[in-house]
Design a protein that fits this description.
This protein is mainly alpha-helical. The chain has helices spanning about 1-10, 10-40, 65-70, 100-115; strands at about 55, 80, 90-95.
């Protein structure tokens, strides 16, 4: 407890948060740009000022569970929004970006394009 208290009181945690927020913001920007470049009309996303995930809305007729199942075969791990709600709603997927570097984000979007177009 003493170590944690010192870590907090000396400002190390605040520095860590600033560094992580900056990194997540850069990764989100990269992901949004790649999606805009490669998935126009296939996936709709909007920036989010907080968090480590984005919501990708799928076109009418596309099922999120099916997309997520096919994505696994491409090494992509998406979660259907239906996992987080009790009532039916628009189809979408949760896309995490916090633990992936920019190069992998771009290649992941390329692989996701294959999932969404096949």
């Amino acid at each position: 407890q003493a170590v944690v208290a010192r870590f907090l009181s000396e400002g190390h945690f605040q520095r860590h948060l600033r560094r992580m927020r900056r990194a997540y913001s850069q990764r989100q920007h990269c992901l949004l740009q790649a999606i805009g470049d490669q998935l126009h009309g296939l996936l709709q996303v909007s920036p989010d000022e907080t968090g480590m995930h984005l919501v990708g809305w799928l076109p009418d007729g596309m099922e999120a569970q099916d997309v997520c199942s096919r994505a696994v075969h491409e090494g992509l791990f998406l979660l259907p929004l239906s996992s987080y709600r009790a009532a039916p709603g628009p189809e979408g997927v949760l896309i995490g970006f916090s633990e992936v570097g920019e190069r992998l984000l771009r290649s992941g979007v390329t692989r996701l394009r294959g999932v969404l177009t096949n």
